[in-house]
Design brief:
The chain is of the alpha+beta class. It has 11 helices and 5 strands. β1 and β2 form a beta hairpin. The relative contact order is 0.11.
Length: 248
């Protein structure tokens, strides 16, 4: 609610709570430092609420491990898992039932009123709502406009109509999110192209390769090997934007 650039998803799974955090950035450059900052901030907030002795079940970061991960282990109180499918924290579901020792139940109504006021101000456009849903649903392999509409509590025609009013379409948003994530995922050489295809919601690697060539002017493997030297104009534009962001 405080930052429209941050998408947070929560999922219950076999006695665990999976908290995924994603940055909604307008460039495709590396976000390693920002990702670590967001995950650490979330971890510190949970530790403040649950108690100083609390430890997460897993700390997940999507980028590769540094040469010396000791600092990460010290800060998070446990070894960090690098090269994961997402950035976030996995904790025991029962941890979420903890009541902070400093909690004041009589202030709950004021907290709810404050959150309601933030929600009212954070009136996201349909384009932004769809973009966030696409980001959340892509790895499931079922990121259709019907599924997105269902998650938003409206029908497909409503989604199409509102997107057209905002000068956008579902397919353009899907391509935009996929393009941004594809560049980030392919930077990790240890991640097979076939697995990148799955993370982007493609049922077959060949379908991903065709899509990638249409949008970047080269195959995923060629892009990974040679970068802008073998990439088409779209890929070069993405790389230049990323390079500019790093300099800034």
């Amino acid at each position: 609610l405080h930052s429209e650039a941050l998408f947070l998803g929560v999922e219950e799974r076999e006695g665990a709570l999976v908290i995924r955090v994603s940055l909604m950035v307008e460039h495709s450059g590396p976000t390693r430092q920002a990702d670590e900052m967001v995950v650490l901030s979330l971890y510190r907030m949970l530790q403040e609420l649950i108690g100083p002795r609390w430890r997460a079940r897993r700390i997940c970061l999507s980028h590769g491990a540094p040469s010396n991960p000791a600092s990460h282990a010290r800060v998070f109180g446990r070894p960090v898992d690098f090269g994961c499918d997402f950035n976030g924290i996995v904790c025991d579901l029962k941890d979420m039932e903890a009541v902070p020792c400093s909690a004041r139940p009589e202030l709950a109504q004021y907290a709810h009123a404050y959150l309601d006021s933030l929600t009212a101000r954070a009136a996201l456009s349909m384009t932004e709502k769809v973009r966030r849903m696409v980001l959340s649903l892509l790895p499931s392999g079922n990121c259709s406009v019907e599924r997105v509409a269902s998650q938003l509590g409206v029908d497909r025609r409503t989604v199409h109509r509102k997107l057209l009013q905002e000068g956008s379409t579902f397919s353009s948003i899907l391509d935009e999110v996929r393009a941004s994530l594809a560049v980030q995922y392919l930077r990790h050489a240890e991640r097979p192209v076939s697995y990148v295809a799955v993370l982007l919601g493609f049922s077959m690697q060949s379908a991903f390769s065709r899509w990638f060539r249409d949008h970047f002017g080269c195959s995923p493997s060629a892009w990974r090997s040679d970068g802008a030297q073998s990439a088409g104009p779209v890929a070069r534009q993405v790389l230049v934007a990323a390079s500019t962001e790093q300099r800034v």
